[in-house]
User: What shape does this take?
Amino acid sequence: MVMDTTPQTPPQDAGHTAAGAALAPHPLAARAEQVGSLLPPPALQEARHVHQDGRLSTVGLRTLEDHLVLESLEQQRRLGVDVLTDGEYRRGSWLGSVAEAVEGFVDAVAERPFDPRSRDATQAAPKVIGGRLRSRRRLIVSEATFLAQHASAPFKITLPSPSSLMLASFEPGVTDAVYPDVDELLADLSALIRDELMSLAGEGTPYVQLDAPGYTLFADSAMREWMSEAGLDPDRLLTQGIAADNASLAPLAEQGVTTGIHLCRGSAQRHWLTVGAHESMAEELLSSLVADVVLLGCENEWADGFRPLRYIADDTKVVLGLVASTRTNPTPYPAMLRRAERAAEHHPMEQLAVSAQCGFVGGSTRHRLSIDDQWRKLELVVRLARDLWG
Assistant: This one.
């Protein structure tokens, strides 16, 4: 099938003017939040395959992306979500957009642990750092300007955190051959992310978020062993990673941009902010981050309840990821309400919000989540927010 490559005017969404966006509520007022990624519509998945085959022009693909983003924005507004995203429809993968835009990434040679619960389960990392990092082009193209024109509500743009990029793309014997000093590697990654965040701020982005799943690895014994075998000191690396992430966010305070960081455990890592051996890790992490908003996956309540929230400053907004994003059977609604109330015992209720546990793309294929399931879950997030805060 040859798809039509003729550009079409995107449908006009209600009240999408830049002036409308300027009058929108502040992101920190949000109660019904979301993490970022949304399931790509089948038409977009098909178009990407056809584009790769050379049967759809880049202009044709971008036009379809525009159309589908507008449809998604309208659905998010209809549901009552307080912070909008473009669903990351324009991106191929979490790491891919960075690897394509930055010189220094190479194909992985070795395999690395995939599931931290098992050293036998491995997955080859597609790209690792094997050269000095230099920017080729912007990491994020056109997302912010399009959303600034069409969102008519607070919106966010997400990027991988420097700390998680480092862990996701570090290969012993390859990365450390060009970056023997971990501080230098993290400084270069932090500069790349910081520069992109500042560009997004200049394009009118009101809210940026770092996705930082790598922190979960510091609470897993198998991954800590892997780090040690790779010549990395896990405890020192945690401190270095926090500093790198903070350095990328810090300049945005003067720009009036709301900053967030998403600490995602992933579906396989159930209790990572727990008392015991890694409580010191939780304290260092949660008390040191400079973000205005901390988004936490907590669909399954932590082993010690919500006590780790006491490490977060009272003036920091905490978004509780109470709604499962990778399975269709939800936690009973009364139980989710009770979890929010228990969280308020350790962090001010007025500084809490709710969201799904994670973005919807991660794990969705494995768990057979449908697009309709996704919208129902966001609807549930909105219901929770309205019942908890009115």
User: Anything to note?
Assistant: Residues 58-79 form the longest helix (22 residues). The chain has one domain: 36-41+92-389.
